[in-house]
């Protein structure tokens, strides 16, 4: 049985000071992700969408309008990255690993300074899924553990911090995040250590 879904902020500040641009990292659900005014108020210029069953169209003034079977396209004020995980089982664990590197890349890209890249480097980041309770929590927990290990020496410590900042109550912890996503983050943590030449973690993550 699913836990009750309590009222909580549309977006929640999780951490600050992420290099190289001293960016802040937020988690939110659909209501937060689709609110351009809210994103701008928090300096959020990057959105990483974890959900496969959720799309947000940030293009307000398309350079190529909809025409017959052709969808509109163009630039937006938001740099938008889409991961597309399932909220539960069904996604390969490697998608969590891919999500980590997508988020890392979004923060660290050095964008060309030309007309076809109308974005600034850096900016604050929102990681979203439908409610900001499971997919986003698992990915951001993994990211905090690997990027701020002095603050979050284990994955469990990172998840505990997110549960507090996101106002996730204890009676919903069994699915915030879902166990299979938590497990995927644990495995991705070990893979990151191998990829980046660090010694694999012993015991807890």
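-> sequence recovered:
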């Amino acid at each position: 049985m699913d836990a009750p879904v309590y009222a909580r902020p549309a977006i929640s500040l999780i951490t600050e000071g992420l290099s190289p641009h001293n960016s802040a990292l937020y988690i939110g659900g659909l209501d937060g992700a689709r609110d351009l005014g809210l994103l701008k108020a928090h300096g959020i210029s990057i959105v990483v969408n974890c959900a496969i069953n959720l799309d947000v169209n940030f293009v307000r003034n398309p350079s190529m309008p909809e025409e017959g079977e052709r969808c509109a396209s163009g630039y937006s004020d938001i740099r938008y990255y889409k991961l597309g995980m399932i909220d539960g089982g069904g996604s390969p664990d490697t998608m969590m690993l891919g999500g980590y590197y997508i988020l890392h890349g979004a923060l660290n890209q050095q964008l060309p300074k030309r007309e076809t890249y109308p974005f600034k480097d850096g900016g604050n980041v929102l990681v979203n899924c439908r409610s900001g309770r499971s997919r986003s929590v698992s990915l951001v927990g993994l990211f905090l553990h690997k990027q701020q290990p002095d603050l979050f020496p284990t994955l469990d410590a990172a998840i505990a911090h997110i549960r507090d900042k996101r106002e996730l109550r204890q009676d919903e912890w069994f699915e915030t995040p879902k166990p299979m996503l938590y497990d995927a983050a644990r495995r991705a943590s070990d893979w990151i250590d191998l990829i980046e030449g660090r010694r694999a973690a012993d015991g807890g993550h």
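The chain has one domain: 11-57+75-195.
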